[in-house]
Amino acid sequence: MTSINMRKDPNFIRGGLPCEGEFEIPIIHREDLPQGPIDLVACSRTRKDDSEDNRRKGVHFFVDDYRFDVFRRRPDASIDKFRQYAFVLSPDFSRYNEMPTWKVIEAIGMNRWQGAYWQRQGLKVIPSVGWATPYSYRFCFCGIERNAPVAVTTNGNRKSKRGYLHGYDAMLDALDPSAVICLGKPFSEMRGNIIHVKYDIYRR
Predict the structure, then answer these.
(1) What is the per-residue pLDDT for 142?
(2) What tens digit of pLDDT does each residue of 34-61 get?
């Protein structure tokens, strides 16, 4: 593909969606959670014509990046399959403290862009939220409307509890979410309207 064509390719430029902040992070608009119990199924365990029980669940991406990295190249992948589920979370691209800042910004931007794009295609999207160092608080809560439900995971954060809770409290201050879907056992110090969803090996 020539550079001229690439500049005309919306999936390469990733523009055309409302953004906010100095880093122009795309906005995932507020959605209401479905009525009734909330449960999640891992994106890696979704399938075409899934069971009636699974179709009542939301799809989560709190798994290894390679399981959903296809969205970097093909943002339309799996849209038709995901339509059968109650909602989807925005994909949780990894952010680590040792990453350079541009990589963390990229992970947050891709999370929001994909979620906003799915909303435009008619999917119900709940933003997943994550952070890295305190510096990342400048941008890692952008693109999410205040008082919207959000999703987090405590999986893999047991050894960094203090830093996790610092970021979690910063998220509450920035977003004041109406509900927090938490995949994995919440820390006792976590505040807010927490909806606990059990994490086990069958969700990967």
Answers:
(1) 97
(2) 999 999 999 999 999 999 999 999 999 9
194, pLDDT greater than 60: yes
Query: Which tokens in the block code for residue 188?
Result: 């006792």
Q: How would you write the chain as a 3-class SS string?
A: CCHHHHHHCHHHHCCCCCEECCCCEECECCCCCCCCCCCEEEHHHCCCCCCHHHHCCEEECCCCHHHCCHHHHCCCCCHHHHCCCCEEECCCCCCCCCCCHHHHHHHHHHHHHHHHHHHHCCCCEECECCCCCHHHHHCCCCCECCCCCEEEECCCCHHHHHHHHHHHHHHHHHHCCCCEEEECCCCCCCCCCEEEECCCHHHC
Per-residue pLDDT reduced to its tens digit, 7-38:
556 666 667 788 998 999 999 999 999 999 99
The DSSP bridge partners found for residue 26 are 19
Per-domain residue ranges for the chain?
A: 20-203
Residue 129 has which token pair?
């939220």
